[in-house]
Amino acid sequence: MIKINNLEIENVKRVKAVRIMPTTSGLTVIGGKNGQGKTSVLDAIAWALGGNKFQPSQPQRTDSTIPPKIHIELSNGLVAERAGKNSSLKVIDPSGNKVGQKLLDSFIDQLALNLPKFMEASSAEKGKTLLQIIGVGDKLAKFDLQEQQLFNRRTEIGRIADQKKKYAKEMTFYEGVPKEPVSASELIRQQQEILARNGENARKRANLSHYAEKANSLHAQIEELQRQYDEAQNNLEIAQKSALDLHNESTEELEKNITEIDTLNLKIRTNLDREKAEIDAEGYAKQYEDLTKEIETVRQDRTNLLDKADLPLPELTVQSGNLIYKNQQWDCMSASEQLKVATAIVRKLNPECGFVLMDKLEQMDSDTLQEFGAWLEQEGLQAIATRVSTSANECSIIIEDGYVKGEDMPLSAAPETKSEKKTWKAGSF
Questions:
Q1: CB neighbours of residue 255 within 10 Å
Q2: H or E stretch at 375
Q3: pLDDT, tens digit, for every residue of 20-34?
Q4: Is 161 inside any structural domain?
Q5: Which end of the chain is more exposed for a tag (fewer CB within 10 A), N or C?
Q6: CA distances from 154 to 149, 158, 272 (A)
Q7: Which of 240, 256, 275 is the last residue of a domain?
Q8: 389 DSSP 8-state letter
Q9: Coiled-coil segments, which residues (predicted)?
Q10: Residue 160 lies in a domain
């Protein structure tokens, strides 16, 4: 990874003359009060390495007639300079050959020079950046769209199922009525069948009387008409046995049903409507369960996709398009976690770029600052940051009135009267 070995800045914005040798890995904090030139140092680095799009609107220090000068030495041996009236860029490789901005762009990521651009982006934009880096953005977008469509459909089905179930529960139900509507003609047919059977019973009773009379008339002729008598006696016995088992069927219930058929059918239809509503509710409930399983499958597919992706940090992922770290969205992360995530993503964008610029770290307390610095060292990353502080315990250097506090100014940046000129001590860092 390529890092900044040394940098010298003169007459850029609020900076008068500053020379810094950042730590190879970890956090180099530029401290000082407001308006002393801390952010100007970061702006100068971005301008020198990132191209003219990073040029400040007023790059030259307002109370100086000397043009801006920036000199940066990188760990790969390249030297980037801006100097002179036009502050044109000059890049020299280790062999002394002149190269250009294109070579710098090949290993210096734009977000490394402008981390606030990433920090201030929306959670969805951060998530999109991460997905683009790991190359699964299009696939994950399809999963997200599929899940959203299924979720919307399931919500609709669930609402209908609840309505159907509530509607069925509120409907009237009659016990002891047939399942299907009853026809009046059917009841009349049943009544006629009963009447026919009753008529047959009457005929059989008439036969009983006939055979009894005949048996009495033939009694005197027993010997001659024994055969006839025996036959008649036999028929009598049969008729007697059949008659004992015969009972007339009542048509009262059918007559009542015929009279009340409309009321009965109303009850039947009411029961059928309720049964249908219950069946509908069960059907929609089943659809809801099926959609839930589909959603779980899509979510698992998304999880599997991200598990296989080469993410910048463990426990860093994207859910519903939003950046998630340790199960927390961006606004719920600590300041240290936010910087850690942003730095890791910047490194992933261009693994050759081993440094990042950070402004306004005063939001971090000392413990958080130390924790973040330790993580940078562990990852072999270099961060140059600013902080509103004059504490030597919190800051690597302190800028005061455009200079590094405690260091003599260089000759070129000294006040423009001979009597006030000073020299810059060599080897200060």
A1: 13
A2: helix 366-379
A3: 999 999 999 999 999
A4: no
A5: C
A6: 9, 6, 27
A7: 275
A8: B
A9: 208-249, 274-308
A10: no
Number of domains in the chain: 2
The band of 184, judged by pLDDT with boundaries at 50, 70 and 90, is confident
In angstroms, the CA 226 to CA 244 distance is: 27
| 372-378 CB contacts, 8 Å cutoff, 24+ apart | 372/27, 372/336, 372/339, 372/340, 373/26, 373/27, 374/26, 375/336, 375/340, 376/25, 376/26, 376/27, 376/343, 377/25, 377/26
**10 Å Cβ neighbour count for 235?**
16
Q: What's the whole-number average pLDDT of the chain? A: 83
The H-assigned helical ranges of 64-136 are: 101-107, 110-113, 115-119, 123-134
Global confidence as pTM? 0.62
Strands (E), 93-191: 98-99
Shared-domain flag, residues 9 and 103: yes
Contact criterion met (CB below 8 Å) for 389 and 395: yes
Length of the chain: 429
**Which range in 226-235, 304-313, 369-378 is most confidently predicted, on average pLDDT?**
369-378
Q: Which residue has the higher pLDDT, 323 or 238?
A: 323
Structural domain ending residue among the three candidates 248, 275, 302: 275
* The amino acid at 316: L
Q: What is the CATH number of the domain that holds 358?
A: 3.40.50.300
pLDDT of residue 252: 79
